[in-house]
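Anyone opening a protein record will find just a pair of labelled lines. With that in mind, the following record should read easily:
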Amino acid sequence: MARKMRWGLLLAAVALVVLALATAGCGSSDSTTEESVAPSSSTSTAAGWTETDLAAIEADPALTAMLPEGMTEIRVASDIPYPPWEYFDPPTSKNPAGFDYDLSQAIAKKIGVPASFNATPFDSIILSIKGGKNDMIMSCMYDNPERQQEGVSFVNYAWDGTSILAKKGNPEGLTNLDSLAGKTVSTLSGGTQELLLQNLNKEFKSAGKAEMKILALPGQPAALLAVTSGRAVADLTDHSTASYIAQTTNDGATFEVVTDPDAPQGYDPAIIGAGIVAENTALIDAVQKALQALIDDGSYQRIIGKYGLIPVESALVNQGGKPAPNSSATP
């Protein structure tokens, strides 16, 4: 990776907070609060995409004119931290960074308005756009028919799968999803992986296998803490995030990704998109055209290349459910 986040420091901080709250009889995490985070001038200047590149993007007045009447800012909801998609840099600050942040700023710059990046718990993130608190979700959210049926449309911008993140050394000897039978697994509450685990439990039950205990927790730090504390044998999370955490936490000494040769890019690779209320067709069209412009001029490729994620070839809407492309790109 072009830049390493000191995730271990954040994890340690979360551990102290959880310990303190446990003695008080309650629990929480950073991502259970919602706050506005202004764009920061300290965003990464690593090779591949810099503040200078962002500043060089020219706004397209035609896209500005497409925005809903009265919109002078795009309020982006994101569940922070969830590296490499979104995180704070430095971890103890409220300065947003990551792929979703960088791409959101580039899209807004092309449209011709600023974009705030607002920390929002994932399990209420759709409600935040439906209720008018935010305009768009950029939080490594999978585009799927269930979310579309909830009234959300997606401007698709990347691909990712699901992987198993275990303690370094894989002490439980995990090999694949079947090896999770009868064990306790943590995951992000409200995420695609929670549904995957629920469906997997149905398969285990039908096959006469022991079901898993699913710890659906309010943020990624809490899910990681469950693994390091021994409450869970693994965290089921996005492949890119699992790889990033394994590589960067304590210089790779804390976690490892369980390697399954049958799923080198993660299980069930699916497309990810910027979620917008389906009725807001003006914003959907503006974001789609802005993303396509960034693809056409090469800006998008430089941003996604910086984070080693799997790109889309063009800006399309609601492609959830279609098969992932064959790609050699890995996080």
